[in-house]
Amino acid sequence: MSQAASFDDMRDLYQEVIMARGRHPQHQLRLDPYDGAAKGDNPMCGDRVEVRIRMAGDTIAEAGFEARGCAISVASADLMADAITGRTPTEVRTLAERFRVMVHTGACPDCGPEMDPLRPLVGVHEFKSRLKCATLPWDAMLGALKESGHG
Amino acid sequence: MSQAASFDDMRDLYQEVIMARGRHPQHQLRLDPYDGAAKGDNPMCGDRVEVRIRMAGDTIAEAGFEARGCAISVASADLMADAITGRTPTEVRTLAERFRVMVHTGACPDCGPEMDPLRPLVGVHEFKSRLKCATLPWDAMLGALKESGHG
Amino acid sequence: MTMIRPAPLDVERIRAEFPILSETVHGKPLVFLDSAASSMKPTAVIDAMADTMRKQYANVHRGLHWMSERTTDAYESTRDAVARLMNAPSRDEIVFAKNSTEAINLLAHSYGSLMQPGQAVLITEMEHHANIVPWQMLRDRAGIELRIARITDAGELDWADYESKLADGRVALVAMTHMSNVLGTYTPAARIAAAAHAAGAKVMFDGSQAIVHRRVDVQALDADFYVFTGHKLYGPTGIGVLWGRMALLDAMPPFMGGGDMIGSVSFEKTTWARVPHKFEAGTPPIVEAIGLKRAIEWVEAVGYDAIAAHEAALTEHALARLADVKGLRVIGQAQDRGGVVSFTLDGAHAHDVATLLDRNGVAVRAGNHCAEPLMRRLGVDSTARASFGVYTTLGEIDVLADTLERVREFFA
Amino acid sequence: MTMIRPAPLDVERIRAEFPILSETVHGKPLVFLDSAASSMKPTAVIDAMADTMRKQYANVHRGLHWMSERTTDAYESTRDAVARLMNAPSRDEIVFAKNSTEAINLLAHSYGSLMQPGQAVLITEMEHHANIVPWQMLRDRAGIELRIARITDAGELDWADYESKLADGRVALVAMTHMSNVLGTYTPAARIAAAAHAAGAKVMFDGSQAIVHRRVDVQALDADFYVFTGHKLYGPTGIGVLWGRMALLDAMPPFMGGGDMIGSVSFEKTTWARVPHKFEAGTPPIVEAIGLKRAIEWVEAVGYDAIAAHEAALTEHALARLADVKGLRVIGQAQDRGGVVSFTLDGAHAHDVATLLDRNGVAVRAGNHCAEPLMRRLGVDSTARASFGVYTTLGEIDVLADTLERVREFFA
Ligand SMILES: Cc1ncc(COP(=O)(O)O)c(C=O)c1O
Ligand SMILES: Cc1ncc(COP(=O)(O)O)c(C=O)c1O
Question: What is the mean pLDDT of residues D399-408?
Answer without folding.
Answer: 97
